Amino acid sequence: MEENLTKLPDVLLPWFDEAKRDLPWRQDREPYHIWLSEIMLQQTRVEAVKGYYARFLAELPTVQALARCDDDKLHKLWEGLGYYSRVRNLKKAAQVIVNEHSGIFPKEYDQILALPGIGDYTAGAICSIAFDQKKAAVDGNVLRVYARLMDDATPIDQPAFKAQVRSQLEEIYPDRAGDFTQALMELGATLCGPNWAPKCDSCPCHSFCKAFAAKTAENLPVKTPKKQKRQEDRTVFILECDGCFALTKRPDTGLLASLWQFPDTPGKLELPAALQMAESWGLQIKDVRRQLEKKHIFTHSVWNLRGFFMEVKIKCDKFIWFSADKIDANAALPTAYRQFWEALKHD
Ligand code: SF4
Predict the structure, then answer these.
(1) pLDDT (tens digit per residue) in 245-256
(2) pLDDT tens readout for residues 86-133
(3) Ligand 1, atom 5: nearest CA belongs to which residue?
(4) Is 38 annotated as catalytic?
(5) Nearest atom of ligand 1 to the alpha carbon of 220
(6) Which residues 6+ apart lie within 8 Å of 3 measured at CB?
(7) How far is CA 233 from CA 239, 266, 294, 340, 342, in A?
């Protein structure tokens, strides 16, 4: 064990006691709350999560309420957070907890890891924060802090590196395991961050941080270059008839499964082709109000979107027609489509 790493708990815990941010999910150690916050915080900023977290718990205060929540309501509570498989897995895991654990959140690491949607990071976070078990939660923040503390230029996305970080950290975990996990996360979020120069002068670890000593912190961590994302063009139709808008439900599996969307078609159509497409759906176009270009970035692909706002004479049966209020209240529209809806509302 490297000597500088063994100093971490004694230095980080007092710093965390002083510097920790007051966050809604730090008010208690309820495993449901820790779990929900960790899932929401994946890929999403803390400030954005706060409102979602409060609304979700106000609607679904217990694992039992989550287990029996209908999918449309669940998607609506998640609308705008993206990566909807996260919320579907939350519900599936809640059902497992109700059916196989008598509604009580399991405490064993392996039982938690076996729940749908829970990987080693989330299992480690729940075990340590909710139950003070000496289990590390190694995410991008922690990998970055470790790479800098050790001045280690191994690409942090290599699974072997992650396993090494986890096992080394677990050797130094103190009794205040939950606070130590959060202190590491806090350091990575507030001082040793990803997209700005690390604030080493304010860091409690700078006396033993190897990257600080070597002046290499800003070059770390190293990552394997990413593959280029697949580019896809799509044309989106925002069709209005008598104050109602055409929606269609996405298939039960695949990208954005079971969410609502505006009708669309592959490719970027020019206006004449878009009109032809709308007519092929049995629609008569009264007016074309606007054309708008948007983009949406997924994990593995980029959608380049062209939207047409069209007023139609008569509703057709091919789509479900929602009032604007009903779209806002009941229909979870993924961000790729919702950005057109927001643009229309702010016209
Ligand atoms: Fe990160 Fe700087 Fe602290 Fe090292 S001294 S852990 S590089 S903030």
Answers:
(1) 999 999 998 889
(2) 999 999 999 999 999 999 999 999 999 999 999 999 999 999 999 999
(3) 206
(4) yes
(5) 7
(6) 208
(7) 19, 6, 10, 15, 20
Q: 144 alpha carbon to ligand 1 midpoint, in Å?
A: 9
Say how many residues make up the chain. Answer: 347
Instruction: Compute the distance between CA of residue 297 and CA of residue 340 in angstroms, rounded to an integer.
Output: 15
**Which numbered atom of ligand 1 lies nearest the CA of 203?**
3
3-state secondary structure of 238: strand
Q: Report helix angle 140-149 to 177-190, nearest 10.
A: 80
Contact 304, 233 (CB under 8 A): yes
Q: Which of 79, 89, 81 is nearest to 116 (CA)?
A: 89
Residue from 8, 141, 200 to probe ligand 1 pocket by mutation (most atoms less than 8 Å from CB): 200
Residues with CB under 6 A from ligand 1: 145, 148-149, 191-192, 198-200, 203, 205-206, 209, 211-212, 217
